[in-house]
Structure formats: C-alpha cells, structure tokens
C-alpha cells in the first residue's frame, strides 16, 4: 500500500512513520509538512510545504494513494478557540477534501483524542472542535474514514514529543511504563502505529476507535 502521513515530525506521526517502515505491506510513504522528518528510509519521500492547507501545488504528486494517516495537531493550551479551530478543523478538512477528490478509494485515519465531544455542544473547547472535525470528516466519501481516539501515549523506540514539557513528563514516567501500560486507557507509540496500518489493511467495524480497541487491533497486526 501507498501511504501519506501529515504531521510526521510530531510524536504520533513519528510512531506511524516508524511502523510503516517496518511493515512489508507498505511500499511507499510520503510525508507532507513544513519540515522533513529526521528519519531516513528507502520507502520515504518527503514533500516540504509551507501551507499544508493548500495542496494545489503538489496535487500531481499525491494521487494513487491507498491511505492518509493524519497525525497533525496542536495542544489547545493557551489558545483561543478561533485559532485552535483554524489549525484543528480548517486545515484538516481542507486536506481531506482535496485528498478525497484525488483519491476516492483512500482510507483516511484522523488521530483525534480521548474525550472528543461528538455532540459539539460540551463545555470543553478542544473537545467540541475535535468533535466537529470528526463529524465532518465522516461525511466525506472516502472508501473509509476512522477516528483514532488515544488517551495517554507512551513513546518508545526513540519517538519523542516536540513539546519539551511533555517530553520531560514522559522521561519522568519512563520507569513506570510497564505499570502504566497495563491500563486500558494507555497505549504505546508502537501499538498506535501498528493499529493504524492494520485498520487500513483490514478495516474495522466502527469508525471511532478508542484506546482499548487500539491495543487489541495492534496485537492482530
């Protein structure tokens, strides 16, 4: 399969990229973002694009793909709703609308988050915006669309958070990874990446996939 990854320099994107490199079912990976990922691999082709919301300049390079793993996102901490919505909703839908036109047989996976508000009416700003993003993605006519809602993700195999505070917290927690990983709401970066590839390959009965299900799917990989 041929896979496009957005947000490949972030922790979730690094997780997806690593597992794509290791999986024989993936023949080609194209990353799209303002910066190229640090990883290098024979499967990888990186496209650097300052404005990822506008894919018109690269449309000829992103046709004929089987999957998009959309891992681009920001923390809502300290952000006003308008700006958070621009990054979380506007960019995501702009990308998805272009891709569904170019690749109608594509499977689109959006990495959302545990606690996302599908009603779009709750008190939590980030959860409402994520909920609207999910709902509008599900209306697009891709072959399939899945919402991954991980809770705590434990980074493994050199995967790191770009947010220094988060990475510090992960480093502090590292001695307790074995204990933490027993919780149904906690997954590893490896489990997340494997589950995404498996869902593209075999599908899944539900479009919304929580941490407990991510764990189970990753074992099937």
Mean pLDDT: 91
Number of domain modules: 1
Structural class: alpha/beta
- Determine the strand fraction and express it as a percent band: 15-25%
Distance between the termini: 15 Å
Q: Name the CATH superfamily classification.
A: NAD(P)-binding Rossmann-like Domain
Q: Give, in order, the helices and strands.
A: EHEEEHEHEEHHEHEH
Low-confidence stretches: none
Helix content: 25-40%
Quaternary arrangement of the chains shown? single chain
The tally of beta strands, per DSSP, is: 9
Main beta-sheet strand count, sense and barrel state: 7 strands, parallel
Shape: globular
Strand order of the largest sheet: 3-2-1-4-5-6-9
Describe this structure in words.
There is one protein chain. The protein has 221 residues and is α/β, with parallel strands linked by helices. The protein has one domain: Rossmann fold. Helix content is 39%, strand content 18%. It has a 7-stranded parallel sheet, with helices on both faces. The chain has a two-stranded parallel ribbon with strand order 7-8. Strand 4, helix 2 and strand 5 form a beta-alpha-beta unit. It is globular, with a radius of gyration of 16 Å. The protein starts with a strand and ends with a helix. The relative contact order is 0.16.
Q: How would you sum up this structure in a few lines?
A:
The chain is α/β, with parallel strands linked by helices and 221 residues long. It has seven helices and nine strands; from the N terminus they run E-H-E-E-E-H-E-H-E-E-H-H-E-H-E-H. Helix 1 packs across helix 6.
């Amino acid at each position: 399969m041929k896979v496009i990854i957005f947000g490949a320099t972030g922790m979730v994107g690094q997780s997806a990229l690593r597992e794509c490199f290791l999986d024989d079912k993936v023949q080609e990976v194209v990353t799209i973002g303002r910066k190229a990922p640090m990883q290098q691999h024979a499967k990888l082709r990186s496209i650097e694009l300052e404005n990822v919301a506008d894919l018109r300049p690269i449309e000829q390079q992103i046709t004929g793909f089987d999957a998009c793993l959309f891992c681009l996102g920001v923390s809502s901490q300290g952000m006003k709703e308008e700006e958070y919505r621009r990054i979380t909703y506007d960019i995501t839908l702009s990308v998805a609308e272009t891709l569904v036109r170019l690749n109608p047989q594509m499977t689109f996976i959006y990495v959302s988050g545990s606690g996302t508000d599908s009603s779009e009416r709750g008190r939590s700003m980030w959860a409402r915006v994520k909920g609207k993003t999910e709902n509008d993605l599900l209306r697009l006519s891709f072959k399939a669309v899945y919402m991954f809602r991980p809770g705590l993700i434990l980074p493994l195999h050199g995967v790191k958070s770009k947010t220094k505070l988060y990475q510090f917290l992960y480093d502090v927690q590292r001695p307790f990874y074995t204990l933490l990983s027993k919780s149904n709401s906690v997954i590893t970066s490896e489990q997340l990446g494997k589950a995404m590839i498996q869902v593209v390959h075999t599908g899944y009965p539900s479009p919304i996939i929580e941490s407990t299900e991510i764990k189970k799917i990753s074992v099937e990989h």
